[in-house]
Design goal:
Elements: H1 14-24, H2 28-40, H3 44-48, H4 52-55, E1 65-68, E2 80-83, H5 86-94, H6 117-130, H7 138-151, H8 156-163, H9 168-174, H10 179-187, H11 199-204, H12 214-217
Antiparallel strand pairs: 1-2
Helix pairs in contact: 1-6, 2-5, 2-7
Length: 221
């Protein structure tokens, strides 16, 4: 959990996500902003630098896939194409991005440029604060999405294609291991337990009767 910007961002539970989008985030813009981060596993910078045409077609309908441009990715490695989930499409259909000279999906103040990363982070923090979610940041959306995919058995190479990590080692640092998963892994070791061998006692004490009463037990101690 992240405290005062130290530690890893919290993985959000289903109930926390429900509270955040129902009562924590107040406007269509804020909900769409966080939904994009959650349902595409993108970084906050990649989210705020999206253009309207990267997400909507010429008739302002959400595209089947959105584009995260290479120039806005960390390390400028490659352009990524992310399918638009129906959950995200619902937020995009409600949000009406205002037109601006730059055409950003989330314009900045007075329609200039795009909303700053710090402003997006503040929106997320305030939303979490309203519904009493501690230890989270905008990175929580990304970590939650990637961990959920990993737990669902999606191959890491496929997840890497979505996340845009340079290598699998970097990706694995994002993934959360749940306590139940650790307990389940240890429980699997029960298959290694040998069948109880009742002959062990007879080997150590061959003359001991099968049953002993108090009067005879003391002679074998």
């Amino acid at each position: 959990m992240k405290i005062d910007r130290h530690g890893k961002a919290k993985i959000l539970s289903q109930s926390e996500i429900q509270r955040l989008f129902t009562d924590g985030l107040l406007t269509a813009r804020d909900k769409t902003l966080c939904a994009v981060m959650l349902y595409t596993a993108c970084r906050v910078k990649e989210c705020v630098t999206l253009k309207i045409k990267d997400v909507y077609d010429s008739k302002r309908r959400a595209r089947p896939e959105l584009i995260i441009r290479k120039g806005n990715t960390k390390g400028k490695l490659a352009t990524r194409t992310i399918p638009v989930l129906d959950d995200l499409r619902r937020y995009l259909s409600v949000y009406k991005p205002p037109l601006s000279a730059d055409g950003y999906l989330f314009p900045g103040r007075w329609g200039r440029g795009h909303i700053h990363e710090d402003s997006a982070a503040a929106i997320f923090r305030e939303g979490c604060k309203r519904v009493d979610i501690e230890g989270s940041s905008t990175h929580s959306c990304r970590r939650t999405a990637l961990t959920l995919m990993s737990n669902a058995g999606i191959p890491l190479r496929v997840i890497q294609e979505i996340s845009g990590h340079r290598n699998l080692e970097q990706l694995q640092r994002y993934l959360e291991v749940e306590p139940d998963q650790v307990r389940g892994a240890i429980a699997a070791l029960s298959m290694l337990s040998p069948v109880p061998d009742t002959s062990i006692g007879k080997c150590l004490y061959p003359d001991v009767p099968e049953t002993l009463d108090d009067s005879t037990a003391s002679s074998y101690i």
